[in-house]
Specification:
Number of helices: 18
Bound molecules: alpha-D-glucopyranose
Distance between the termini: 12 Å
CATH architecture of the largest domain: 3-Layer(aba) Sandwich
Strand order of the largest sheet: 3-4-5-2-1-6-7-11-12
Mean pLDDT: 97
CATH superfamily of the largest domain: Glycogen Phosphorylase B
Number of domains: 2
CATH topology of the largest domain: Rossmann fold
Largest sheet: 9 strands, mixed
Length: 481
């Protein structure tokens, strides 16, 4: 039996701000339990719902030095769906309404979390062979592991993995403060270690010190070795390219299942979607106050409304999009600029545009189930999960060819009748507009071919099975099996 500890700042069902939480919550469920004991550790935020707090049990507590500070560390545990979770408790750091707040506070918060995780290990009656870190909030952990913790027998030989879900967020703050809060020697703050461009950089520390680095798609693993996607760390990514690979994420096939989904009224599969899927569309049109017409081409967007998602392309040609024979359904929150954009167009074209500027899980399922196409023109996309959810529900993705979008959506070829979606290459609003029009024309004029594509998309396998196997292979390789 090999023991793997997944460390992350968010994880479903406890707390979620993005796809990271889905991945960390789902992966352990799909790892072979006869060969690996995968457990998860995360902060015990105040914002975790009460019903989950009730399932946590006190495990232990102690006091820990963090630089000149001395802090309380509580450890709670819980078992949910057969997975063991540990939660690090400290009311001073984790009492906010959200997991993240001001970066200068988060910098200290996650230094504390990383050190607390390592300090708690000997008290868990369990010894991990691998510590699997995720994103910048866990970047200091591989550094600590090689530093002070390397001295003890307990820690010697533990391997670490750093998984990058988004290279854009690195956890950057000035060196002096980080030295102080992290309690690390000035030795670490040079440009071959934690320092990048004069500041301290948590993610960089993780990438330099981890035994292996992964990202969430093969294309993104290549892209981040180039300046355009490298976020200033492309040189480092190239330097570590022999210990870098991409493993695409899966989605939870129980949660996202058009045959059983509790949020949709008319269930369907790849053989009966022709009659049933559009009944959901009618219901959604009624619910959103759009023109009720099951023949209308309906395009969905479920997204954080940020620059990463390519929404300035949508902004640029939204008038032209609205002039097409289609309906646009948006769900999500984010930058004011985009929230206002979509609110305005909903007001301007009530029968054609619906903008729900909030997040609602039930509504997202209805959109995946009811729309004909799903728009995701990302500037960059490490993996992307919603295109996978869309395809599972026979909703054809329209994407830009980047990162995980490129790896999971096969472009439609009308001559050979292959593909599962539509894609364009350049970050260009008119290229996107043309691709939307191409999808729209295919939908209206070549319905047989469209439906065949829906069938193909629904029959692709994006469950966790394949991805979990790849992580298992990586775990084995690191441990020398
Ligand atoms: C981040 C990325 C997204 C990825 C997710 C989970 O949110 O932006 O592309 O799917 O992490 O790995």
């Amino acid at each position: 039996m090999k023991n793997v500890l997944l460390v992350a700042s968010e994880c479903v069902p406890f707390i979620k701000t993005g796809g990271l939480a889905d991945v960390v919550g789902e992966l352990p469920k799909y790892i072979d339990k006869t060969r690996y004991d995968v457990r998860v550790i995360l902060p015990n935020y105040k914002a975790i719902p009460g019903n989950l707090k009730e399932q946590m049990k006190y495990h232990t507590h102690f006091y820990m030095d963090l630089g000149w500070r001395r802090q309380y560390v509580g450890i709670l545990d819980a078992e949910i769906d057969g997975v063991k979770f540990y939660l690090v408790d400290n009311e001073y750091y984790f009492n906010g309404e959200k997991p993240y707040g001001n970066i200068y506070e988060d910098i200290e918060k996650f230094a504390f979390f990383n050190r607390a995780v390592l300090s708690a290990l000997p008290l868990l009656d369990w010894h991990p062979d691998i510590i699997h870190c995720n994103d910048w909030q866990t970047g200091l952990l591989p550094v600590y592991l090689k530093d002070s913790f390397n001295a003890g027998d307990f820690y010697r030989g533990i391997k670490s993995i750093m998984t990058i879900h988004n290279l854009k967020f690195q956890g950057i703050w000035n060196k002096k403060t980080v030295m102080d809060v992290a309690g690390l020697d000035p030795y670490y703050f040079t440009s071959d270690k934690l320092e990048a461009y004069g500041d301290a950089n948590y993610l960089k520390g993780g990438i330099v010190y981890a035994d292996y680095v992964t990202t969430v798609s093969e294309s993104y693993a290549k892209e981040i070795q180039m300046p355009f996607y490298g976020e200033g760390l492309d040189g480092l990514m190239r330097a570590r390219s022999n210990c870098l690979c991409g493993i695409v994420n899966g989605i939870d096939y129980n949660e996202y299942n058009p045959e059983t989904d509790k949020f949709i009224k008319y269930h369907f599969n790849s053989s009966n979607f022709r009659t049933n899927k559009k009944k959901n569309k009618v219901l959604l049109q009624e619910e959103l106050g759009l023109e009720v017409n099951d023949k209308k081409f309906m395009v969905g967007i479920v997204s954080r409304l940020t620059d990463q998602k390519g929404l300035d392309l949508v902004d640029c040609v939204i008038e032209q999009i609205c002039a097409e024979n289609l309906q646009l359904v948006i769900l999500g929150t984010g930058e004011q600029r985009y929230e206002n954009l979509f609110r305005h167009y909903e007001w301007k074209y009530k029968d054609r545009v619906s903008a729900s500027i909030y997040y609602n899980n039930e509504r997202s399922h209805k959109i995946y189930a009811s729309c004909d196409a799903f728009l995701m023109p990302s500037l960059f996309e490490p993996c992307g999960l919603s295109q996978l959810m869309s395809m599972r529900y026979g909703t054809i993705p329209i994407v830009r060819e980047t990162g995980g979008l490129k790896d999971t959506v096969e472009p439609f070829n009308e001559y050979e009748n292959t593909g599962t979606g539509f894609s364009f290459m350049n970050y260009n609003a008119h290229e996107m507009l043309n691709t939307i029009r191409y999808a729209e024309n295919t939908f209206y004029d070549k319905r047989r071919q469209w439906n065949k594509m829906v069938e193909r998309a629904m029959n692709r396998d994006f469950s966790w099975k394949n991805s979990a196997e790849k992580y298992q292979e990586l775990y084995d390789r690191l441990l020398g099996y």
